[in-house]
Amino acid sequence: MQLIKSDMKHGALRFSGVAMVGAGQRGAALIISLVILLVITVIGLAGMNTSILQERMSANAQNARQAFFAAEAASQDLFRKLEPMNSSSAEWKLALNALDAGIRVATTPKTYSGVGSGKVATAELRYLGESTLVEGHSFGEDIETFRQRYEIIGDASVTGTGARSQVIRGVSVVFY
Q1: The model's pTM
Q2: Are 167 and 68 a contacting pair, CB within 8 Å?
Q3: How confident is the model at residue 119 (pLDDT cuts 50, 70, 90)?
C-alpha cells in the first residue's frame, strides 16, 4: 500500500485510493437508518390496524342493514296480509279473537324464510286497545265507530353476528 500525501484531508487517510474511517465516526448512519426503519415499520403496522378496524366496522354496518331490511320485509309482509281488511283472513281472525278475549298479543311471531340465508325474521301483530272516534268524523253521526289500534312488529337478526333490528308500525283499524 502506498501512502498518498496529497489526498490527506481532515481525519481521513487514503491508502491506494481506499478511504479509511477516521477516529470520529462510529456507525452513526447505521443507527439513524435503523431508527428510521423502525419508525416506518410502526407507521405501517398502525395503518394495518386501522384498516382492519375499518373493515370490521364496515362488516358490522352491513350486518345491521341486512337485519333492518329483513325486519322491514317481515313487517311489510304481515301488513300486506292485513291490508285488504278481510275479516276472514287468518291474521285478522287471530287479531279479532285476541280483541274479544282482551289479549294484548294478537298473533304469535311468525318466522319468515324468504329473508335470505343466515337471517331470521319474525313478525307479530299486537292489539293495543281501542278508542272512540271524535264527533264530527266523516263516517257519519248515526254510526257508532271504534278505532282499534295495533302494532306490527318485525324483528330480525343475522345469525352469528349479533346484529338485530326491530321495526314497529302503528296500524289503526276502523270497524263500524
Answers
A1: 0.62
A2: yes
A3: confident
